[in-house]
Amino acid sequence: MPNLVPAGALAEVLPGSTLGLFASPDLAELVVLQRCCWVSEAIVNSTLDIPALHETQDEVLAWATAWTTLVVRAEGRLVAAVRGRREGMSWEIGRLMVAPDLAGRGIGSRLLAVIESLAPDNVTEFALFTGAKSLRNIALYERSGYRLIHAWDPDGPGHISGAVFLTKLRTTG
After folding, report:
1. How far apart are CA 84 and CA 73, in angstroms?
2. What digits encode the pLDDT tens for the residues 93-105?
3. What is 96-155 written as a DSSP string?
4. pLDDT in tens, 106-118
5. What share of the chain is helix, strand, coil (3-state, %, to 5)?
6. pLDDT, tens digit, for every residue of 10-30?
7. Packing angle between helix 27-44 and helix 57-66, nearest 10 degrees?
8. pTM value?
């Protein structure tokens, strides 16, 4: 699969890092990073019922290869990741994760912008979920133009109990 990451984005996520598409050798580190990142979400949201904490390597491999999944490496270490995929006219974004020791440096915001840039041209909105009590995540998404949607179907496909849904209209430059 060709590297779909825009050349200009390569140095923007984290100085000295590399940004690329997920490859199978990334799997073990991606599983560890995911669990590490979602422990704090479990604490903040008072629940262990978060799919990211329970997925097997095979399940992570399945979504990492089915979605457009980006990974960031710094000094050889996998330190951040995100995924995106088309759902109708939306570009669904998920599993935005940054190693806890690197949080707060703008890596998540920059990685969010890169995954948005990879959406197909005819996508009209971006959509994502986060924990209802994940105020830091919600603030990041709102700074990036997302708005909380309170009128979603809690029994709809892909809904996670205790999660909120955010969307952002795609603007053309």
Report:
1. 18
2. 999 999 999 998 9
3. EEE-GGGTTSSHHHHHHHHHHHTS-TT--EEEEEEETT-HHHHHHHHHTT-EEE----TT
4. 999 999 999 999 9
5. 35, 30, 35
6. 446 888 889 999 999 999 999
7. 100
8. 0.86
